[in-house]
Amino acid sequence: MNTPATRDAFEARLRRIGAERYHDLHPFHGLLHGGQCSPDQVRAWVINRYYYQSRIPMKDAAFLSRVEDPALRRTWRSRIEDHDGSDGNEGGIARWLRLASAVGLDPDYVASCAGVLPATRFAVDAYVRFVRERTLLEAVASSLTELFAPKIHAERIEGLLRNYEFADDSSLSYFRKRLTEAPKDVAFGLAWVLDHADTADRQDAAADALIFKTDVLWSQLDALHSAYVAPARIPPGAWRPGEGLALARAS
Ligand SMILES: O=C(O)c1cc(C(=O)O)c2c(n1)C(=O)C(=O)c1cc(C(=O)O)[nH]c1-2
């Protein structure tokens, strides 16, 4: 049997996956953060990314339903509240819909998930299914893309504020809040994975789960780029510019 890598070497392997494959490297993020997206391209991103946001608490609920350890459940359940809200905290989904309004979309339209690209659905649904069906180690490891998220959230806040009129403290509050939520989640998740990936096979499985998750994120941006960046190829049934606008702006 292969001997496992040391804790430090294994952590370095996970971080290398992020350095090579995380979606901060995707050209669509370059366009978005650099101010080169049209209002409709920003809207398409907001609509499709909402689908990811809306499924995150569902995948965390799927995870919780499989955990037998009350201590692990107690720690993990705050992830659901971070998105769904709780007393005194409006939650990430409501904050995302504030962003939708700020870019001129009807939040009810966005929340309906009508117009989400088929490939976005396939990728995101695959993530929920992965967490429901694979080992707990693979499920936790797949959330570790969040190791790399604070950097992209900080870049996004800075880039959107600099380049787009809709961007202000209210419309970007989702990302500002994630800057404190994500590090707490991921510190726990990383320690848990390092503790539980105690054989070479388990380390390989955890690394593969993280790679799978980088693919889930990358595919969503591929779908957006293909549909909405010239030469745009919007699939049948997906959002078309002019649809789902807030009434005041549509007239
Ligand atoms: O904006 C981003 O690039 C980004 C990436 C990720 C991620 O790496 O999966 C998450 C988020 N944001 C995020 O806001 C979020 O709540 C979140 C939860 C999770 C997860 O897998 O449980 N990832 C992410």
TrEMBL record:
List keywords of the entry alphabetically.
Oxidoreductase, PQQ biosynthesis
Enzyme Commission number, as recorded? 1.3.3.11
The Thiaminase-2/PQQC domain is annotated at 12-222
Describe which pathway this protein belongs to, using the record's wording: Cofactor biosynthesis; pyrroloquinoline quinone biosynthesis
Q: Which domain of life is it from?
A: Bacteria
The record's section on Pfam families has:
TENA_THI-4
Q: Kindly indicate whether the keyword Cell wall biogenesis/degradation belongs to this entry.
A: no
List the catalytic activities from the record.
6-(2-amino-2-carboxyethyl)-7,8-dioxo-1,2,3,4,7,8-hexahydroquinoline-2,4-dicarboxylate + 3 O2 = pyrroloquinoline quinone + 2 H2O2 + 2 H2O + H(+)
The main enzyme category here is: oxidoreductase
Q: Where are the transmembrane segments?
A: none
Q: Which HAMAP family does the UniProt record give?
A: PQQ_syn_PqqC
- Protein purpose: Ring cyclization and eight-electron oxidation of 3a-(2-amino-2-carboxyethyl)-4,5-dioxo-4,5,6,7,8,9-hexahydroquinoline-7,9-dicarboxylic-acid to PQQ.
What's the protein here called?
Pyrroloquinoline-quinone synthase
Q: Which organism is it from?
A: Rhodovulum viride
UniProt lists the gene as pqqC
